[in-house]
Amino acid sequence: MAASYYVTTPIYYVNADPHIGHAYTTLAADALARWHRLLGEDVYFLTGTDEHGKKIEEAAQKAGISPLEHATRVSARFRELWQVLDIEYDDFIRTTEPRHEAVVADLWQRMMAAGDIYLGKYEGWYSVGDEAYFTEDELVDGRSPTGHEVAWVVEPSYFFRLSKYGPRLLEHLRARPGFVRPESRYNEIVRFVEQGLQDISISRTTFKWGIPVPEHPDHVVYVWVDALTNYVSALGGPDAPLYEQFWPEAVHLIGKDILRFHAVFWPCFLMSAGLPPPKSMFAHGWWTHAGRKMSKTFGNVIDPGAMAQQYGADTFRYFLLREVTFGLDGDFSEAALRDRINGDLANDYGNLLNRSLGMLQKYRDGVVPSGGAAGPEDEALRTAFAASRETLLKAMDEMAFHRALAAIWDLVRAGNKYVDATAPWALAKQGAAERLDAVLYNLCETLRIVGVWTLPFLPRKAADLLDRLGAPADVRDVPSTAAWGRLPAGLQTTVGDPLFPRLEALAKAPPETEKKPETPKPMPAPEKKPTVTDTTTIQYDDFAKLDLRVAKVLTAEKHPDADRLLKLTIDAGDGRERTVCAGIAAHYTPQEMVGRTVVLLANLAPRKIRGVMSEGMLLAAGAETVKLLSVAGDLPPGTKIS
Ligand code: ME8
Q1: Atom 3 (ligand 1) nearest CA
Q2: pLDDT digit string, tens, across residues 193-240
Q3: Are both 473 and 545 inside the same structural domain?
Q4: CB neighbours of 182 closer than 8 A, spacing ≥ 6?
Q5: Which residue minimizes the CA distance to atom 16 of ligand 1?
Q6: Same domain assignment for residues 186 and 89
Q7: Tens of pLDDT along 581-624?
Q8: Residue 226 domain-assigned (yes or no)
Q9: Domain final position from 285, 320, 349
Q10: Residues with beta carbon inside 6 Å of ligand 1?
Q11: Do 262 and 123 share a structural domain?
Q12: For ligand 1, atom 13, which residue shows the shortest CA distance?
């Protein structure tokens, strides 16, 4: 029997329109769901909307309509966006549906029967923006940690004995290091639970827009108890066959800000109700724009629907999952998106398709040849295939989408190199028909494999690629890419228009791409050795302007457009991942760089180096032989060097 896989997104508040954060989690979940389907698993992918609570009630009041009417309108906008972004969910749950409300009431009664709910009085701070309670200590300048207003509330309330479940939760966490990912978030949760848990208020009496507490309808169920239950109610509740099949495999994708609700409250509610916690969860980072939190006040909100319309849904999907390590924060830049389109998608991926099928058309009337004569260039292509496959499978297991895509692109680039190395046009001229057959076949097989692997990320374009190749259904799944050579011979291919037309009109690009033409800056500059006469004394203040830090290399790859550069992603301890181009490709391999601790000049003005925005510079010594600076001992990223 096929394995089961259950992936969920948070259910989104319907107080306002969907934004990039919603799109991000949902398309990550969609990519995972598609990947697991391609593996042949039985997949259930759930998303939906969170429609109760004070926040929605207030938004409806503002709009002058009933909360349900408001929720219905906004919930529909989420579904419209998911259609635009090609999100293929299996179920969309709304918390105002009776099927959900019934399971919330059931869960409440189970927790009550376990003796874990008691009546008391809540007195403390509440933030409607977060729909969360805060202690005095947690407030920052009189606001919630996320910057929302708080109000002092005093009301009768039911409490949940969270304190009782601390030890059991800790045991659960310790036995399952993968319960919360990434690891940094797991550690954060373990530390939090170790400090001991306090009981929490789980009902409200000062407004009505919620699910009534069973037998006490003057209370409504706290919106987080209501919302979290969606993951079980969508499966039909604890006695349903869908629950039996999928609940043991549940993986929650969430943003880092709602981790505590998922990793602490939710497992404890479930334990109290006599149900097992989900299998695991992954908390991703936040997108900023132009270095700031997105907000209407700053006018820097990115509309995912508009982006998908302008650049194409596939492109937007690819960019969000390729640009930033899943788990870390990232800064959105339209210029970077355009670079990815012109570089990865047009130059690499689209080009491999068009040149390969173009040559196949020219030399073999577009028909995939069979067999042929092996040649010395084949080895490198096969090796690239095997290496990409291994990295890809592991990366998808770890939800490291950026690494998965980088691995696929290693094969794409190996395919393009294969064209250059085998020079099919020369083979045609020489009449080396057998070798030409083999080369053209290998290119088609590369395209097929790349096409299958990119289906989760570029669902339309990859399907288009496979259609142009004429690939039959049985060679369009992941198991069919386990070994080289499954593409049958004799298929009729069609070239078609470029898959990803280049964006030539850069003049129309946003101002950030229009900055002065960039030339690669060599690092370090070997030609210009400092001499004694170059040295002038400086004041300490001058030195203090340099933000030198310990940093860690997370990923490394060859710069797509410059042989001497490596393109690195680096953790400089500032909560985000940055890209740095370093002129060290002749001295260090990408593999040697991953995990290495380096010294970074972090406040060097960002500049674009051959199409890649580089933020900072690694320090190194030497000219002919270049050695990177490092620090003795084990200092964490971000440690200042002074
Ligand atoms: O929290 N970048 O709903 P929500 C990345 N209803 N992610 C972002 C983001 C950004 N700039 N801004 C927000 C809720 N998010 C609850 C969930 S689940 C049982 C109930 C993410 O609409 C945020 O991290 O406020 C969260 O995961 C998601 O958007 C939903 O936010």
Answers
A1: 12
A2: 999 999 999 999 988 999 999 999 999 999 999 999 999 999 999 999
A3: no
A4: 282, 283, 327
A5: 12
A6: yes
A7: 998 988 888 878 888 899 999 888 788 787 888 899 999 887 76
A8: yes
A9: 285
A10: 10-13, 20-22, 24-25, 50, 227-228, 230, 254-255, 257-258, 286-287, 294
A11: yes
A12: 21
Measured in angstroms, how far is the CA atom of residue 11 from the centroid of ligand 1? Answer: 8
Cα(483) to ligand 1 centroid in Å equals 40
CATH code (residue 401): 1.10.730.10
Domain with residue 559: its CATH number is 2.40.50.140
Q: What is the whole-number distance in angstroms between the Cα of residue 21 and the centre of ligand 1?
A: 6
- Give the Å distance between the CA of 184 and the centre of ligand 1: 19
Give the number of other CB atoms < 10 A from CB of residue 525.
Answer: 11
Amino acid in position 31: A
**Do 551 and 448 share a structural domain?**
no
End-to-end CA, the chain: 60
Residue 248 contacts by C-beta under 8 Å, 6 or more apart in sequence?
4, 276, 279
Separation CA 46–CA 206 (nearest Å)? 31
List pLDDT tens digits, range 427-443: 999 999 999 999 999 99
Do 281 and 336 fall within a single domain?
no
Report the DSSP pairing between strands 280-284 and 250-255.
parallel
Closest residue to atom 24 of ligand 1, CA basis: 255
Centre of ligand 1 from the C-alpha of residue 41, in Å: 28
Q: How far is CA 112 from the centre of its chain?
A: 38
Q: In what order do the strands lie in the sheet with 287-289?
A: 292-293, 287-289, 330-332
Residue 294 belongs to some domain of the structure: no
Name the one residue in this structure whose structure tokens are 């690195």.
568
**Closest residue (by CA) to atom 10 of ligand 1?**
21
Atom of ligand 1 nearest to the CA of 266: 19
Nearest C-alpha to atom 15 of ligand 1 is from which residue?
Answer: 21
Same domain, 550 and 612: yes
Q: Residue 164 domain-assigned?
A: yes
The span from the CA of 184 to the CA of 597, in Å, is: 18
Q: Considering the domain boundaries, does residue 518 fall inside one? A: no
User: What separation in Å is there between the alpha carbon of 280 and the centre of ligand 1?
Assistant: 18
Domain range holding 570?
Answer: 540-628
- Summarised one tens digit per residue, pLDDT across range 511-564 is 443 333 333 333 333 333 333 333 346 566 667 778 899 988 888 888 888 888
Q: Tell the residue nearest (CA) to atom 8 of ligand 1.
A: 21
55 plus 193 within the same structural domain: yes
Mean pLDDT for the chain overall: 91
- What is the count of structural domains for the chain? 3
